[in-house]
UniProtKB/TrEMBL annotation:
InterPro entries: GIY-YIG_endonuc, GIY-YIG_endonuc_sf
Organism: Fodinibius halophilus
Name of the protein in its database record: GIY-YIG nuclease family protein
PROSITE patterns noted in UniProt: GIY_YIG
Taxonomy of the source species: Bacteria, Pseudomonadati, Balneolota, Balneolia, Balneolales
Domain of life per record: Bacteria
One Pfam family hit: GIY-YIG
Domain GIY-YIG: 1-80
Length: 82
């Protein structure tokens, strides 16, 4: 099982979209400022995640969520329902 996840910075208006096989460990790494691309935005809340079966599906969904239409779907359908 793989997870596509959305983090929101507690200090800034900034979101991060990523994927991983180990959600708890990856979330902890982001909050511990161990991830280069997010360390300046920590700490985070986990806004949402989607579980998929394969790494390929996770990669494709992450890529889609980072597009304009994917971000729109994410904001309107997923984040508003949480």
């Amino acid at each position: 099982m793989y997870y596509v996840y959305i983090l929101k910075s507690k200090n800034r208006d900034w979101r991060y979209i990523g994927y991983t096989k180990e959600l708890k460990e990856r979330f902890a790494a982001h909050n511990a400022e161990s991830v280069q691309s997010t360390k300046h935005y920590a700490p985070f809340t986990l806004e949402a995640y989607v579980a998929v079966q394969t790494k390929r599906q996770a990669r494709e969904l992450e890529k889609y969520f980072k597009t304009g239409s994917g971000r729109s779907v994410l904001m309107k359908r997923i984040l508003q329902s949480t």
